[in-house]
Amino acid sequence: MNEAAPLPEAAVVAEKLTKRYGSLTAVEDLSFSVAPGEIVGFLGPNGAGKSTTMRILSGTMSGTSGRASIWGVSVALDPAGAKRHLAYMPENNPLPEDLRVEEYLTLRARLKDVDPARVDERVRKVMDDCDLTRRASGRLIGQLSKGFRQRVGIADALLAEPRVVILDEPTIGLDPHQILGIRDLIRSLRGKMAVLISSHILHEVEQVCDKVVIINRGRLVAQGRTEDLRRELLPEASFTVVTRADEAALLAACRATEPAAMVAALPSIGGWNSFRIALPAGSPARETLAGALIAAGIPLREVAEDRFGLEDIFLAATRRAPGEARRS
Amino acid sequence: MRHFRTLLAHELRTAALSWNTWAAAGLFLALMGGIHFFALVEGSRAPGDRTPVESTLWFFWLPLLCVLPLLTMRTFAEERRSGTLAALLTTPASAAAVVWAKFLATWIVWVVFWLLFTLFPFLTVQRLGTPGDLRLGDPSILWGGLCFIAVSGLLHVAIGILCSCVTRSSALAALLAFISLLAMTAAGGALESLPIESWEWLGWLREPAAHLRTFGHLQDFAAGILDSRPIVLYGTGTLLCLGLAILSVEGQE
Predict the structure, then answer these.
(1) Which of A188, A208, A231 is the last residue of a domain?
(2) What is the pLDDT of residues A262-300, one digit of tens each?
(3) Which ipTM score applies to this complex?
(4) Residues A218 and A200 in one domain
(5) Would you say B174 and B166 are in contact if contact means Cβ atoms under 8 Å apart?
(6) Chain B partners within 8 Å of A92 (Cβ)
(7) Is B87–A58 a contact, with Cβ atoms under 8 angstroms apart?
(8) A293 shares a domain with A164
(9) Is residue A35 part of a domain?
(10) pTM of model > 0.90
Protein backbone atom coordinates (compact mmCIF):
# COMPACT_ATOMS: atom_id res chain seq x y z
CA MET A 1 0.00 0.00 0.00
CA ASN A 2 1.16 3.57 -0.60
CA GLU A 3 2.86 5.46 2.21
CA ALA A 4 0.73 6.44 5.19
CA ALA A 5 -1.35 9.55 4.61
CA PRO A 6 -4.50 10.96 6.20
CA LEU A 7 -7.50 8.91 5.16
CA PRO A 8 -9.81 10.99 2.97
CA GLU A 9 -13.58 10.82 3.46
CA ALA A 10 -14.02 9.48 -0.04
CA ALA A 11 -11.55 7.59 -2.20
CA VAL A 12 -13.32 8.61 -5.40
CA VAL A 13 -15.42 11.73 -5.82
CA ALA A 14 -17.33 12.71 -8.93
CA GLU A 15 -19.03 16.05 -8.48
CA LYS A 16 -21.37 17.43 -11.14
CA LEU A 17 -19.30 15.72 -13.84
CA THR A 18 -20.35 16.65 -17.35
CA LYS A 19 -18.91 15.55 -20.66
CA ARG A 20 -20.16 16.90 -23.97
CA TYR A 21 -19.10 15.99 -27.50
CA GLY A 22 -20.46 18.91 -29.48
CA SER A 23 -24.21 18.76 -29.13
CA LEU A 24 -24.13 15.23 -27.64
CA THR A 25 -24.07 15.05 -23.85
CA ALA A 26 -22.46 11.79 -22.74
CA VAL A 27 -22.44 12.52 -18.99
CA GLU A 28 -24.45 15.23 -17.27
CA ASP A 29 -24.23 16.57 -13.75
CA LEU A 30 -23.12 13.22 -12.37
CA SER A 31 -22.23 13.09 -8.68
CA PHE A 32 -21.30 10.09 -6.57
CA SER A 33 -18.54 8.92 -4.27
CA VAL A 34 -16.76 5.74 -3.26
CA ALA A 35 -15.52 5.35 0.32
CA PRO A 36 -12.06 3.93 1.07
CA GLY A 37 -12.11 0.14 1.00
CA GLU A 38 -15.60 0.03 -0.51
CA ILE A 39 -16.56 -1.98 -3.61
CA VAL A 40 -19.07 -0.11 -5.75
CA GLY A 41 -20.86 -1.39 -8.83
CA PHE A 42 -21.29 1.15 -11.61
CA LEU A 43 -24.27 0.18 -13.72
CA GLY A 44 -26.14 1.50 -16.69
CA PRO A 45 -27.46 0.41 -20.09
CA ASN A 46 -25.14 0.47 -23.12
CA GLY A 47 -24.25 4.06 -24.01
CA ALA A 48 -25.25 5.34 -20.57
CA GLY A 49 -21.85 7.00 -20.08
CA LYS A 50 -20.18 4.48 -17.75
CA SER A 51 -16.94 4.14 -19.70
CA THR A 52 -16.79 7.90 -20.30
CA THR A 53 -17.15 8.54 -16.57
CA MET A 54 -14.49 5.96 -15.77
CA ARG A 55 -12.13 7.46 -18.29
CA ILE A 56 -12.63 10.93 -16.79
CA LEU A 57 -11.97 9.55 -13.32
CA SER A 58 -8.84 7.79 -14.55
CA GLY A 59 -7.50 10.96 -16.17
CA THR A 60 -7.41 9.54 -19.70
CA MET A 61 -10.15 11.94 -20.75
CA SER A 62 -10.99 15.42 -19.56
CA GLY A 63 -14.50 16.35 -18.51
CA THR A 64 -16.30 19.39 -19.89
CA SER A 65 -17.16 20.57 -16.37
CA GLY A 66 -17.39 19.29 -12.83
CA ARG A 67 -14.79 17.88 -10.47
CA ALA A 68 -13.23 14.46 -10.17
CA SER A 69 -10.80 13.48 -7.46
CA ILE A 70 -8.97 10.32 -6.51
CA TRP A 71 -7.90 9.97 -2.88
CA GLY A 72 -8.38 13.69 -2.42
CA VAL A 73 -6.25 14.64 -5.45
CA SER A 74 -7.93 16.50 -8.29
CA VAL A 75 -7.67 14.51 -11.52
CA ALA A 76 -7.72 17.70 -13.63
CA LEU A 77 -5.25 19.76 -11.56
CA ASP A 78 -2.77 17.02 -10.65
CA PRO A 79 -3.26 14.10 -13.03
CA ALA A 80 0.08 12.50 -12.21
CA GLY A 81 -0.67 12.73 -8.47
CA ALA A 82 -4.11 11.20 -8.94
CA LYS A 83 -2.69 8.41 -11.08
CA ARG A 84 -0.30 7.46 -8.26
CA HIS A 85 -3.31 6.40 -6.19
CA LEU A 86 -5.23 4.82 -9.04
CA ALA A 87 -5.21 1.76 -11.25
CA TYR A 88 -7.57 1.64 -14.19
CA MET A 89 -8.41 -1.33 -16.36
CA PRO A 90 -10.20 -0.09 -19.52
CA GLU A 91 -13.12 -1.93 -21.07
CA ASN A 92 -11.30 -3.88 -23.79
CA ASN A 93 -8.17 -4.28 -21.64
CA PRO A 94 -5.63 -3.41 -24.36
CA LEU A 95 -2.34 -5.25 -23.87
CA PRO A 96 0.82 -5.42 -25.99
CA GLU A 97 0.74 -8.72 -27.85
CA ASP A 98 4.48 -9.10 -28.22
CA LEU A 99 5.51 -8.99 -24.55
CA ARG A 100 5.59 -11.86 -22.12
CA VAL A 101 3.35 -11.55 -19.07
CA GLU A 102 6.21 -11.18 -16.62
CA GLU A 103 8.01 -8.61 -18.80
CA TYR A 104 4.83 -6.60 -19.19
CA LEU A 105 4.09 -6.55 -15.48
CA THR A 106 7.69 -5.61 -14.69
CA LEU A 107 7.48 -2.69 -17.12
CA ARG A 108 4.16 -1.55 -15.66
CA ALA A 109 5.52 -1.81 -12.11
CA ARG A 110 8.41 0.47 -13.01
CA LEU A 111 6.09 2.96 -14.70
CA LYS A 112 3.82 2.92 -11.66
CA ASP A 113 6.67 3.95 -9.35
CA VAL A 114 6.87 0.67 -7.48
CA ASP A 115 10.01 0.72 -5.34
CA PRO A 116 12.72 -0.75 -7.66
CA ALA A 117 13.80 -3.12 -4.89
CA ARG A 118 10.24 -4.51 -4.68
CA VAL A 119 9.41 -4.79 -8.38
CA ASP A 120 10.18 -8.53 -8.66
CA GLU A 121 8.41 -9.30 -5.41
CA ARG A 122 5.27 -7.39 -6.43
CA VAL A 123 5.21 -8.97 -9.90
CA ARG A 124 5.45 -12.46 -8.35
CA LYS A 125 2.75 -11.60 -5.79
CA VAL A 126 0.17 -10.35 -8.29
CA MET A 127 0.92 -13.23 -10.66
CA ASP A 128 0.27 -15.64 -7.78
CA ASP A 129 -2.88 -13.78 -6.73
CA CYS A 130 -4.23 -13.84 -10.28
CA ASP A 131 -3.20 -17.45 -10.90
CA LEU A 132 -0.81 -16.50 -13.68
CA THR A 133 2.45 -17.93 -12.35
CA ARG A 134 1.97 -21.54 -13.33
CA ARG A 135 0.22 -21.23 -16.65
CA ALA A 136 1.03 -17.88 -18.18
CA SER A 137 4.09 -16.11 -16.77
CA GLY A 138 6.45 -16.99 -19.62
CA ARG A 139 3.93 -16.82 -22.43
CA LEU A 140 3.45 -14.02 -24.91
CA ILE A 141 0.35 -11.99 -24.10
CA GLY A 142 -0.80 -12.38 -27.70
CA GLN A 143 -1.07 -16.15 -27.15
CA LEU A 144 -3.23 -15.93 -24.01
CA SER A 145 -6.92 -16.73 -23.82
CA LYS A 146 -9.41 -13.98 -23.05
CA GLY A 147 -9.63 -15.12 -19.43
CA PHE A 148 -5.90 -14.95 -18.88
CA ARG A 149 -5.70 -11.58 -20.60
CA GLN A 150 -8.31 -10.28 -18.16
CA ARG A 151 -6.25 -11.70 -15.32
CA VAL A 152 -3.17 -9.91 -16.65
CA GLY A 153 -5.18 -6.66 -16.71
CA ILE A 154 -6.29 -7.14 -13.12
CA ALA A 155 -2.78 -8.15 -12.04
CA ASP A 156 -1.55 -4.92 -13.61
CA ALA A 157 -4.20 -2.97 -11.71
CA LEU A 158 -3.09 -4.46 -8.38
CA LEU A 159 0.66 -4.15 -8.99
CA ALA A 160 1.32 -0.86 -7.25
CA GLU A 161 -1.16 -1.52 -4.41
CA PRO A 162 -3.21 1.52 -5.36
CA ARG A 163 -5.81 3.15 -3.11
CA VAL A 164 -8.39 3.04 -5.89
CA VAL A 165 -9.03 0.45 -8.60
CA ILE A 166 -11.38 1.18 -11.50
CA LEU A 167 -12.35 -1.88 -13.53
CA ASP A 168 -14.43 -1.42 -16.67
CA GLU A 169 -16.20 -4.71 -17.47
CA PRO A 170 -13.55 -7.00 -15.94
CA THR A 171 -15.57 -10.18 -16.49
CA ILE A 172 -16.67 -9.54 -20.07
CA GLY A 173 -16.16 -12.60 -22.28
CA LEU A 174 -15.18 -14.92 -19.43
CA ASP A 175 -16.58 -18.40 -18.78
CA PRO A 176 -18.35 -19.11 -15.46
CA HIS A 177 -15.23 -20.62 -13.86
CA GLN A 178 -13.17 -17.60 -14.76
CA ILE A 179 -15.92 -15.27 -13.53
CA LEU A 180 -15.90 -17.03 -10.18
CA GLY A 181 -12.14 -16.59 -9.94
CA ILE A 182 -12.29 -12.90 -10.78
CA ARG A 183 -15.20 -12.42 -8.38
CA ASP A 184 -13.23 -13.94 -5.51
CA LEU A 185 -10.25 -11.84 -6.42
CA ILE A 186 -12.28 -8.61 -6.37
CA ARG A 187 -13.99 -9.64 -3.16
CA SER A 188 -10.58 -10.10 -1.55
CA LEU A 189 -9.88 -6.40 -2.16
CA ARG A 190 -12.70 -5.28 0.16
CA GLY A 191 -11.32 -3.09 2.92
CA LYS A 192 -7.92 -2.80 1.22
CA MET A 193 -8.75 -0.74 -1.85
CA ALA A 194 -11.72 1.25 -3.10
CA VAL A 195 -13.03 -0.53 -6.19
CA LEU A 196 -15.34 0.93 -8.80
CA ILE A 197 -16.46 -1.82 -11.12
CA SER A 198 -18.75 -1.68 -14.13
CA SER A 199 -20.42 -4.83 -15.36
CA HIS A 200 -23.46 -5.98 -17.25
CA ILE A 201 -23.60 -9.13 -15.16
CA LEU A 202 -25.88 -7.80 -12.43
CA HIS A 203 -25.75 -11.01 -10.45
CA GLU A 204 -21.99 -10.56 -10.19
CA VAL A 205 -22.32 -7.00 -9.01
CA GLU A 206 -24.91 -7.95 -6.42
CA GLN A 207 -22.61 -10.69 -5.08
CA VAL A 208 -19.52 -8.55 -4.88
CA CYS A 209 -20.46 -4.90 -4.34
CA ASP A 210 -21.30 -2.99 -1.17
CA LYS A 211 -23.14 -0.32 -3.11
CA VAL A 212 -24.30 0.41 -6.64
CA VAL A 213 -24.44 3.57 -8.71
CA ILE A 214 -26.88 3.40 -11.62
CA ILE A 215 -26.79 5.88 -14.47
CA ASN A 216 -28.93 6.25 -17.56
CA ARG A 217 -28.35 8.59 -20.50
CA GLY A 218 -25.40 10.10 -18.66
CA ARG A 219 -27.35 11.01 -15.52
CA LEU A 220 -27.56 9.45 -12.10
CA VAL A 221 -30.79 7.53 -11.56
CA ALA A 222 -30.02 5.66 -8.34
CA GLN A 223 -27.25 5.02 -5.88
CA GLY A 224 -26.96 3.24 -2.57
CA ARG A 225 -26.96 -0.19 -0.97
CA THR A 226 -28.99 -2.80 -2.84
CA GLU A 227 -31.37 -3.22 0.14
CA ASP A 228 -32.02 0.52 0.33
CA LEU A 229 -32.61 0.75 -3.41
CA ARG A 230 -34.96 -2.22 -3.23
CA ARG A 231 -37.05 -0.40 -0.63
CA GLU A 232 -36.87 2.88 -2.54
CA LEU A 233 -37.57 1.63 -6.04
CA LEU A 234 -39.66 -1.49 -5.45
CA PRO A 235 -41.66 -0.81 -2.28
CA GLU A 236 -44.59 -3.04 -3.26
CA ALA A 237 -44.64 -6.66 -2.10
CA SER A 238 -45.18 -9.63 -4.38
CA PHE A 239 -45.92 -13.26 -3.47
CA THR A 240 -45.98 -16.43 -5.55
CA VAL A 241 -48.75 -18.77 -4.43
CA VAL A 242 -49.20 -22.41 -5.55
CA THR A 243 -52.70 -23.69 -4.70
CA ARG A 244 -55.68 -25.89 -5.76
CA ALA A 245 -57.97 -22.83 -5.55
CA ASP A 246 -59.01 -20.90 -8.64
CA GLU A 247 -58.22 -17.24 -9.32
CA ALA A 248 -61.61 -15.88 -8.18
CA ALA A 249 -61.42 -17.63 -4.79
CA LEU A 250 -57.86 -16.50 -4.24
CA LEU A 251 -58.66 -12.91 -5.21
CA ALA A 252 -61.61 -12.86 -2.80
CA ALA A 253 -59.43 -14.18 0.04
CA CYS A 254 -56.74 -11.60 -0.71
CA ARG A 255 -59.16 -8.69 -1.01
CA ALA A 256 -60.59 -9.62 2.41
CA THR A 257 -57.28 -8.76 3.99
CA GLU A 258 -56.02 -6.10 1.49
CA PRO A 259 -58.63 -4.44 -0.73
CA ALA A 260 -55.98 -3.21 -3.21
CA ALA A 261 -54.43 -6.65 -3.72
CA MET A 262 -54.00 -7.85 -7.33
CA VAL A 263 -53.80 -11.46 -8.51
CA ALA A 264 -52.26 -12.63 -11.77
CA ALA A 265 -52.18 -16.20 -13.04
CA LEU A 266 -48.84 -17.88 -13.71
CA PRO A 267 -48.28 -21.15 -15.61
CA SER A 268 -49.64 -24.08 -13.57
CA ILE A 269 -47.21 -26.58 -12.02
CA GLY A 270 -48.11 -30.30 -12.17
CA GLY A 271 -51.84 -29.73 -11.82
CA TRP A 272 -51.44 -27.01 -9.21
CA ASN A 273 -52.47 -23.46 -10.02
CA SER A 274 -49.84 -20.81 -9.64
CA PHE A 275 -50.52 -17.10 -9.05
CA ARG A 276 -48.68 -13.88 -8.32
CA ILE A 277 -50.24 -11.67 -5.66
CA ALA A 278 -49.19 -8.01 -5.63
CA LEU A 279 -49.70 -5.89 -2.53
CA PRO A 280 -49.30 -2.11 -2.49
CA ALA A 281 -46.34 -0.48 -0.76
CA GLY A 282 -46.60 -0.49 3.02
CA SER A 283 -49.55 -2.86 3.11
CA PRO A 284 -49.84 -4.60 6.54
CA ALA A 285 -51.11 -7.67 4.66
CA ARG A 286 -47.51 -8.40 3.73
CA GLU A 287 -47.06 -10.03 7.13
CA THR A 288 -50.49 -11.62 7.44
CA LEU A 289 -51.21 -12.84 3.92
CA ALA A 290 -50.32 -16.51 4.42
CA GLY A 291 -52.41 -16.74 7.60
CA ALA A 292 -55.32 -14.96 5.94
CA LEU A 293 -55.32 -17.39 3.00
CA ILE A 294 -55.27 -20.42 5.33
CA ALA A 295 -58.05 -18.88 7.42
CA ALA A 296 -60.10 -18.39 4.22
CA GLY A 297 -59.76 -22.12 3.48
CA ILE A 298 -57.48 -21.80 0.45
CA PRO A 299 -55.60 -25.11 0.00
CA LEU A 300 -51.97 -24.01 -0.20
CA ARG A 301 -48.94 -25.87 -1.35
CA GLU A 302 -46.55 -22.93 -1.33
CA VAL A 303 -46.47 -19.22 -0.44
CA ALA A 304 -43.23 -17.34 -1.03
CA GLU A 305 -42.42 -13.66 -1.07
CA ASP A 306 -40.69 -12.70 -4.32
CA ARG A 307 -37.32 -11.18 -3.68
CA PHE A 308 -36.46 -8.43 -6.14
CA GLY A 309 -32.93 -8.78 -7.40
CA LEU A 310 -30.55 -6.18 -8.69
CA GLU A 311 -31.92 -6.85 -12.15
CA ASP A 312 -35.36 -5.63 -11.05
CA ILE A 313 -33.81 -2.66 -9.28
CA PHE A 314 -31.79 -1.84 -12.39
CA LEU A 315 -34.85 -2.02 -14.62
CA ALA A 316 -36.90 0.11 -12.23
CA ALA A 317 -34.11 2.66 -11.87
CA THR A 318 -33.41 2.99 -15.57
CA ARG A 319 -37.12 3.37 -16.31
CA ARG A 320 -37.51 6.38 -14.08
CA ALA A 321 -36.68 9.91 -15.16
CA PRO A 322 -33.13 11.15 -14.55
CA GLY A 323 -32.94 13.50 -11.59
CA GLU A 324 -35.33 11.46 -9.47
CA ALA A 325 -32.41 9.76 -7.81
CA ARG A 326 -32.06 10.32 -4.11
CA ARG A 327 -28.54 10.78 -2.87
CA SER A 328 -27.60 8.13 -0.34
CA MET B 1 13.05 11.16 -15.81
CA ARG B 2 12.85 7.66 -14.33
CA HIS B 3 9.85 6.96 -16.51
CA PHE B 4 11.72 8.24 -19.56
CA ARG B 5 14.61 5.85 -18.95
CA THR B 6 12.23 2.94 -18.38
CA LEU B 7 10.28 3.77 -21.52
CA LEU B 8 13.43 4.29 -23.61
CA ALA B 9 14.81 0.91 -22.56
CA HIS B 10 11.45 -0.68 -23.38
CA GLU B 11 11.26 1.03 -26.78
CA LEU B 12 14.80 0.00 -27.71
CA ARG B 13 14.09 -3.57 -26.68
CA THR B 14 10.81 -3.58 -28.63
CA ALA B 15 12.58 -2.15 -31.68
CA ALA B 16 15.32 -4.79 -31.47
CA LEU B 17 12.74 -7.60 -31.36
CA SER B 18 10.35 -6.19 -33.93
CA TRP B 19 10.12 -7.75 -37.39
CA ASN B 20 9.38 -4.24 -38.64
CA THR B 21 12.84 -3.00 -37.61
CA TRP B 22 14.56 -5.99 -39.19
CA ALA B 23 12.59 -5.58 -42.41
CA ALA B 24 13.48 -1.87 -42.47
CA ALA B 25 17.14 -2.71 -41.79
CA GLY B 26 17.14 -5.22 -44.65
CA LEU B 27 15.60 -2.70 -47.02
CA PHE B 28 18.00 0.01 -45.89
CA LEU B 29 21.11 -2.12 -46.33
CA ALA B 30 19.89 -3.42 -49.71
CA LEU B 31 19.24 0.13 -50.91
CA MET B 32 22.49 1.60 -49.64
CA GLY B 33 24.51 -1.47 -50.69
CA GLY B 34 23.09 -1.23 -54.20
CA ILE B 35 23.72 2.50 -54.43
CA HIS B 36 27.28 2.09 -53.17
CA PHE B 37 27.92 -0.73 -55.62
CA PHE B 38 26.73 1.34 -58.57
CA ALA B 39 28.70 4.35 -57.31
CA LEU B 40 31.84 2.17 -57.26
CA VAL B 41 31.16 0.79 -60.76
CA GLU B 42 30.46 4.29 -62.09
CA GLY B 43 33.56 5.66 -60.36
CA SER B 44 35.77 2.95 -61.89
CA ARG B 45 34.41 3.68 -65.38
CA ALA B 46 34.64 7.44 -65.32
CA PRO B 47 36.28 8.93 -62.24
CA GLY B 48 34.59 12.25 -61.50
CA ASP B 49 34.72 14.99 -58.88
CA ARG B 50 33.01 12.88 -56.29
CA THR B 51 34.32 9.74 -54.63
CA PRO B 52 31.97 6.71 -54.46
CA VAL B 53 31.27 7.48 -50.77
CA GLU B 54 30.22 11.03 -51.60
CA SER B 55 28.04 9.81 -54.46
CA THR B 56 26.41 7.25 -52.16
CA LEU B 57 25.76 9.79 -49.41
CA TRP B 58 24.18 12.08 -51.99
CA PHE B 59 21.39 9.50 -52.22
CA PHE B 60 20.61 9.77 -48.49
CA TRP B 61 17.10 10.90 -49.46
CA LEU B 62 16.24 7.49 -50.83
CA PRO B 63 16.33 5.60 -47.49
CA LEU B 64 15.01 8.73 -45.81
CA LEU B 65 11.83 8.53 -47.87
CA CYS B 66 11.54 4.74 -48.15
CA VAL B 67 12.88 3.41 -44.83
CA LEU B 68 12.40 6.06 -42.14
CA PRO B 69 8.58 6.11 -42.51
CA LEU B 70 8.66 2.34 -41.89
CA LEU B 71 10.41 2.96 -38.58
CA THR B 72 8.18 5.78 -37.39
CA MET B 73 4.78 4.70 -38.70
CA ARG B 74 3.94 2.26 -35.91
CA THR B 75 5.29 4.26 -32.99
CA PHE B 76 1.98 5.88 -32.06
CA ALA B 77 -0.52 4.89 -34.76
CA GLU B 78 -0.41 1.21 -33.84
CA GLU B 79 -0.58 1.92 -30.11
CA ARG B 80 -3.53 4.24 -30.63
CA ARG B 81 -5.30 1.62 -32.75
CA SER B 82 -4.80 -1.15 -30.20
CA GLY B 83 -5.52 1.10 -27.21
CA THR B 84 -2.20 0.40 -25.49
CA LEU B 85 -1.29 4.09 -25.64
CA ALA B 86 -4.33 4.98 -23.53
CA ALA B 87 -3.39 2.21 -21.10
CA LEU B 88 0.15 3.56 -20.93
CA LEU B 89 -1.16 7.01 -20.10
CA THR B 90 -3.08 5.67 -17.10
CA THR B 91 0.31 5.29 -15.37
CA PRO B 92 2.13 8.29 -13.86
CA ALA B 93 4.35 8.40 -17.00
CA SER B 94 3.72 11.68 -18.82
CA ALA B 95 2.89 12.10 -22.49
CA ALA B 96 6.18 13.99 -22.86
CA ALA B 97 8.16 11.04 -21.47
CA VAL B 98 6.36 8.67 -23.85
CA VAL B 99 6.96 10.89 -26.91
CA TRP B 100 10.61 11.57 -26.08
CA ALA B 101 11.31 7.89 -25.41
CA LYS B 102 9.79 6.78 -28.70
CA PHE B 103 11.55 9.59 -30.55
CA LEU B 104 14.98 8.87 -29.10
CA ALA B 105 14.65 5.11 -29.59
CA THR B 106 13.71 5.58 -33.26
CA TRP B 107 16.53 8.07 -33.78
CA ILE B 108 19.03 5.65 -32.25
CA VAL B 109 17.81 2.87 -34.58
CA TRP B 110 18.11 5.25 -37.56
CA VAL B 111 21.67 6.18 -36.62
CA VAL B 112 22.57 2.51 -36.09
CA PHE B 113 21.32 1.78 -39.61
CA TRP B 114 23.70 4.40 -40.98
CA LEU B 115 26.56 3.10 -38.86
CA LEU B 116 25.93 -0.31 -40.40
CA PHE B 117 26.16 1.32 -43.79
CA THR B 118 29.78 2.33 -43.02
CA LEU B 119 30.64 -1.36 -43.34
CA PHE B 120 30.27 -1.03 -47.14
CA PRO B 121 32.93 1.66 -47.67
CA PHE B 122 35.09 0.10 -44.93
CA LEU B 123 35.04 -3.33 -46.60
CA THR B 124 35.54 -1.79 -50.03
CA VAL B 125 38.65 0.06 -48.91
CA GLN B 126 39.94 -3.00 -47.11
CA ARG B 127 39.49 -5.22 -50.17
CA LEU B 128 40.23 -2.86 -53.06
CA GLY B 129 42.10 0.12 -51.67
CA THR B 130 45.69 0.82 -50.78
CA PRO B 131 46.86 2.66 -47.66
CA GLY B 132 46.65 6.43 -48.08
CA ASP B 133 44.60 6.23 -51.26
CA LEU B 134 41.47 8.31 -50.72
CA ARG B 135 39.91 7.68 -54.15
CA LEU B 136 37.52 5.06 -52.79
CA GLY B 137 36.37 7.39 -50.06
CA ASP B 138 37.73 9.92 -47.66
CA PRO B 139 36.81 8.87 -44.09
CA SER B 140 36.37 12.51 -43.09
CA ILE B 141 33.71 12.93 -45.78
CA LEU B 142 32.00 9.76 -44.60
CA TRP B 143 31.92 10.84 -40.95
CA GLY B 144 30.93 14.40 -41.88
CA GLY B 145 28.07 13.03 -43.94
CA LEU B 146 27.02 10.77 -41.09
CA CYS B 147 27.02 13.77 -38.74
CA PHE B 148 24.60 15.45 -41.15
CA ILE B 149 22.43 12.33 -41.16
CA ALA B 150 22.42 12.26 -37.36
CA VAL B 151 21.63 15.98 -36.95
CA SER B 152 19.02 16.20 -39.72
CA GLY B 153 17.72 12.81 -38.56
CA LEU B 154 16.51 14.47 -35.36
CA LEU B 155 14.01 16.53 -37.35
CA HIS B 156 13.23 13.76 -39.82
CA VAL B 157 12.41 11.29 -37.05
CA ALA B 158 10.40 13.95 -35.19
CA ILE B 159 8.35 14.56 -38.35
CA GLY B 160 7.69 10.83 -38.65
CA ILE B 161 6.70 10.62 -34.98
CA LEU B 162 4.31 13.56 -35.36
CA CYS B 163 2.72 11.94 -38.43
CA SER B 164 2.22 8.72 -36.45
CA CYS B 165 0.58 10.68 -33.61
CA VAL B 166 -2.21 12.10 -35.73
CA THR B 167 -3.69 8.87 -37.08
CA ARG B 168 -4.61 5.34 -35.99
CA SER B 169 -3.50 3.87 -39.31
CA SER B 170 0.16 2.89 -39.66
CA ALA B 171 -0.11 2.98 -43.46
CA LEU B 172 -1.50 6.51 -43.39
CA ALA B 173 1.21 7.54 -40.93
CA ALA B 174 3.87 6.20 -43.31
CA LEU B 175 2.29 8.05 -46.24
CA LEU B 176 2.09 11.31 -44.28
CA ALA B 177 5.72 10.94 -43.22
CA PHE B 178 6.78 10.21 -46.81
CA ILE B 179 5.03 13.34 -48.11
CA SER B 180 6.32 15.54 -45.28
CA LEU B 181 9.90 14.32 -45.64
CA LEU B 182 9.74 14.71 -49.41
CA ALA B 183 8.49 18.28 -49.00
CA MET B 184 11.14 18.97 -46.36
CA THR B 185 13.98 17.59 -48.48
CA ALA B 186 12.87 19.22 -51.71
CA ALA B 187 11.69 22.51 -50.23
CA GLY B 188 15.03 24.31 -50.32
CA GLY B 189 15.81 23.25 -53.87
CA ALA B 190 12.31 24.05 -55.07
CA LEU B 191 12.37 27.51 -53.52
CA GLU B 192 15.81 28.20 -54.92
CA SER B 193 14.69 27.19 -58.39
CA LEU B 194 11.97 29.86 -58.34
CA PRO B 195 12.95 33.04 -60.19
CA ILE B 196 12.98 34.93 -56.89
CA GLU B 197 15.45 37.50 -58.17
CA SER B 198 13.04 38.69 -60.83
CA TRP B 199 9.99 38.75 -58.55
CA GLU B 200 10.26 41.65 -56.17
CA TRP B 201 7.38 40.52 -54.00
CA LEU B 202 9.03 37.15 -53.41
CA GLY B 203 12.18 38.73 -52.11
CA TRP B 204 11.41 37.68 -48.52
CA LEU B 205 11.72 34.03 -49.61
CA ARG B 206 15.39 34.39 -50.45
CA GLU B 207 16.64 33.92 -46.87
CA PRO B 208 14.42 30.95 -45.91
CA ALA B 209 15.24 29.27 -49.22
CA ALA B 210 18.93 29.58 -48.47
CA HIS B 211 18.42 28.02 -45.03
CA LEU B 212 16.33 25.11 -46.26
CA ARG B 213 18.74 23.71 -48.84
CA THR B 214 19.13 20.20 -47.42
CA PHE B 215 21.73 19.07 -49.96
CA GLY B 216 23.76 22.17 -49.21
CA HIS B 217 23.79 21.18 -45.55
CA LEU B 218 25.04 17.71 -46.47
CA GLN B 219 27.77 19.26 -48.58
CA ASP B 220 28.82 21.56 -45.73
CA PHE B 221 28.90 18.78 -43.16
CA ALA B 222 30.81 16.46 -45.50
CA ALA B 223 33.31 19.25 -46.16
CA GLY B 224 33.76 19.68 -42.41
CA ILE B 225 32.12 23.11 -42.33
CA LEU B 226 30.26 23.50 -39.05
CA ASP B 227 27.54 26.06 -39.61
CA SER B 228 25.28 26.66 -36.62
CA ARG B 229 22.27 27.69 -38.74
CA PRO B 230 21.28 24.21 -39.95
CA ILE B 231 21.85 22.87 -36.45
CA VAL B 232 19.45 25.52 -35.08
CA LEU B 233 17.01 24.78 -37.91
CA TYR B 234 16.98 21.03 -37.23
CA GLY B 235 16.98 21.53 -33.46
CA THR B 236 14.07 23.96 -33.35
CA GLY B 237 12.15 21.97 -35.95
CA THR B 238 12.60 18.86 -33.80
CA LEU B 239 11.36 20.62 -30.67
CA LEU B 240 8.37 22.03 -32.56
CA CYS B 241 7.38 18.63 -33.98
CA LEU B 242 7.81 16.88 -30.64
CA GLY B 243 5.86 19.62 -28.87
CA LEU B 244 2.99 19.14 -31.31
CA ALA B 245 3.27 15.37 -30.87
CA ILE B 246 3.02 15.73 -27.08
CA LEU B 247 -0.05 17.96 -27.44
CA SER B 248 -1.56 15.43 -29.82
CA VAL B 249 -0.98 12.55 -27.38
CA GLU B 250 -2.29 14.56 -24.42
CA GLY B 251 -5.38 15.57 -26.38
CA GLN B 252 -6.36 12.07 -27.47
CA GLU B 253 -9.78 11.12 -26.18
Answers:
(1) A231
(2) 899 988 877 888 998 988 877 888 888 888 888 888 888
(3) 0.82
(4) yes
(5) no
(6) 83
(7) no
(8) no
(9) yes
(10) no
